[in-house]
Structure to design on (531 residues):
């Protein structure tokens, strides 16, 4: 990065450290913090949507839909994450490529599955093998978001399903007495009130999601833990900056990052809880009412 | 507007043509000097040098990608990349799932490395998951301690979790030489065949091209020169 870093083995002390910390690999490490934050920012709402959809399906009076919602939460919650992450993205990827293959190469006569191999025509590859590496990375990232959303959505669905049942029955009865239809009562009375019951469970999920990002490397997305392990590992003279095992320092930096994330999340969650407690028939809502008097 | 459609069509066409020749090379990026991520953040090492030379000779456009060792074979067969060049030894078990080119490194020795020359090679032995060394340790009756990356196998010996580490000689020797006497070679064993590049079993055409390129590199001595450059003057050559 700097001109005086051209020959790292001839410099030492602070200059060496400065060159070391600005090497191309370290810049990738810093950028991976952005990747993780972006993943969290995208995954959280998508997972919440999956959860809400799953809970709505599970509550549905239409039996097949309700079974679908219940099967989704039960199955995904039961499968270990690491198996899920090895299997589902590859299955999703092959599913997309299979569909594209059917559309784009109708004249293809060779089998798609040949023993262990999965072969589609080159035009159906997703992304095309000629696409630049950045396209492959974006695609891998999108698969990661989808896989995370499916897993965390299943947990969220269970939390939201429980929260919907926790809303006092009297509230719904009142809504019905006012002549609201099922749909109106659901959207106007049940949904606004259920969040306060869902929040503790959802905040747990959020904290777990923050720490689940190392699973990303199974999909080829390089996250902060991957880089910390790679950069911290002892380096021989084959590298420009040889050093002994420094993993402890890198992991301490990650510890600080995760603690800051936790602190910020707690602050935000506390505010959201206060806001959602307004006028609720809960202990929190009652305390707010008394304080305001 | 017509012009735009035309140029878009031309672009799509040329992309289609190019896709026939772009080959994606998968490696681990954590196994110096075979393959590692250098300080610029690029794939580097012996595997990189050989792969680039093969691509040049076979007139292929190549792109390097890294993948975790654990899932390196599943991602090959599902088509996320086309070739594994990751210092992978040719074994019967792997050969049932994927195909190998001819070897581009002669059968290399493996070393037991510990903190003293008397360390117990039948005690707790660390090795990387899904390697020939891990299989060897499991068969030898010693207690196997598996780690996802090679670097962690050495760290396990340093902090006393394992008595010795078993890994490729070419990987361990630089670490031993630079440890200021902390690490010593305990024993040397010969495990497995040579190291080859892995391909999908159905990819016979690509395999032929790569094999031809490796043969030509063996014949004119380029491969031996690369082996000496990365593994030292006394390394085994063809």
């Amino acid at each position: 990065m700097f001109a005086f870093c051209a020959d790292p083995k001839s410099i030492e002390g602070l200059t060496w450290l400065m060159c070391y910390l600005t090497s191309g690999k370290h810049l990738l490490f810093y950028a991976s913090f952005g990747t993780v934050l972006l993943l969290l920012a995208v995954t959280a709402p998508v997972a919440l949507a999956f959860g809400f959809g799953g809970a709505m399906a599970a509550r549905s009076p239409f039996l097949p839909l309700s079974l679908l919602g219940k099967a989704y939460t039960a199955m995904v919650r039961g499968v270990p994450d690491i198996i899920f992450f090895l299997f589902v993205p590859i299955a999703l990827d092959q599913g997309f490529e299979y569909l594209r293959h059917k559309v784009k190469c109708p004249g293809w006569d060779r089998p798609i599955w040949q023993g262990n191999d999965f072969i589609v025509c080159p035009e159906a590859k997703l992304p095309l093998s000629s696409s630049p590496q950045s396209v492959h990375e974006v695609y891998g990232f999108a698969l990661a978001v989808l896989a995370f959303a499916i897993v965390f959505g299943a947990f969220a669905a269970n939390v939201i399903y429980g929260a919907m049942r926790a809303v006092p029955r009297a509230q719904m009865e009142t809504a019905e007495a006012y002549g609201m239809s099922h749909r109106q009562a659901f959207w106007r009375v049940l949904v606004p009130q259920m969040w306060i019951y869902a929040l503790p469970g959802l905040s747990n999920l959020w904290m777990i999601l923050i720490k689940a990002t190392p699973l990303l490397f199974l999909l080829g997305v390089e996250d902060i833990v991957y880089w910390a392990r790679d950069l911290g590992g002892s380096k021989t003279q084959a590298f420009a900056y040889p050093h002994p095992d420094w993993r402890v320092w890198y992991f301490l930096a990650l510890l600080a990052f995760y603690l800051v994330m936790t602190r910020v999340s707690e602050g935000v969650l506390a505010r959201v809880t206060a806001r959602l407690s307004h006028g609720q028939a809960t202990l929190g809502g009652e305390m707010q009412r008394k304080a305001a008097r | 507007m017509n012009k735009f459609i035309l140029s878009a069509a031309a672009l799509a066409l040329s992309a289609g043509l190019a896709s026939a020749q772009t080959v994606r090379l998968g490696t681990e990026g954590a196994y110096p000097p075979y393959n590692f991520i250098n300080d610029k953040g690029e794939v580097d090492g012996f595997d990189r040098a050989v792969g680039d030379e093969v691509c040049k000779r076979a007139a292929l456009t190549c792109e390097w990608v890294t993948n975790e060792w654990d899932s390196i074979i599943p991602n090959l067969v599902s088509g996320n990349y086309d070739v594994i060049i990751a210092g992978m030894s040719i074994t019967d078990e792997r050969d049932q799932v994927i195909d190998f080119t001819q070897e581009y490194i002669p059968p290399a020795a493996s070393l037991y490395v510990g903190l003293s020359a008397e360390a117990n090679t039948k005690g707790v032995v660390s090795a990387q998951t899904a390697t020939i060394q891990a299989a060897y340790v499991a068969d030898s009756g010693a207690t196997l301690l598996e780690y996802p990356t090679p670097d962690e196998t050495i760290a396990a010996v340093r902090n006393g979790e394992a008595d010795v580490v078993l890994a490729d000689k070419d990987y361990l020797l630089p670490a031993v030489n630079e440890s200021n006497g902390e690490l010593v070679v305990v024993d040397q064993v010969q495990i497995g065949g040579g190291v080859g590049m892995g391909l999908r079993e159905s990819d016979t055409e690509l395999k032929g091209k790569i094999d031809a390129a490796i043969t030509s590199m063996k014949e004119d001595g380029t491969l031996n020169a690369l082996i000496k450059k990365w593994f030292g003057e006394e390394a085994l050559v063809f």
Notes: Chain B is about 40% helix and 20% strand. The longest strand of chain B covers residues 184-190. The first helix of chain B runs from residue 2 to 19.
